[in-house]
Amino acid sequence: MNWHNFEQLTLNGKTYSKLTLLDFCKQAPQQHINELGAFLSDWFLDADTITLKTSGSTGVPKTIVVRKEQMLKSAAATANYFNFQPGQSALLCLPMPYIAARMMVVRALFSGLNLICIAPCSNPLDAIDDSIHIDFAPLTPMQLHFVSNTKGIKHILLGGAPISESLELRCQSLSAQIFHGYGMTETLSHVAIRRVNGADKSNIFYGLPNMVFHTDERGCLTIDVPYLEKRIVTNDLVALLSDKSFIWQGRADNLINSGGIKLIPEHIEEKLLPFLTNRFFVAGLPDEKWGQKLVLVIEGSPLLAYQINVLKENMNQHLNRIEQPKEIWFIEKFIETPTGKIQRLQTLNLTIDERKIR
Question: How would residue 357 be classed by pLDDT, with cut points 50, 70 and 90?
Answer without folding.
Answer: very low
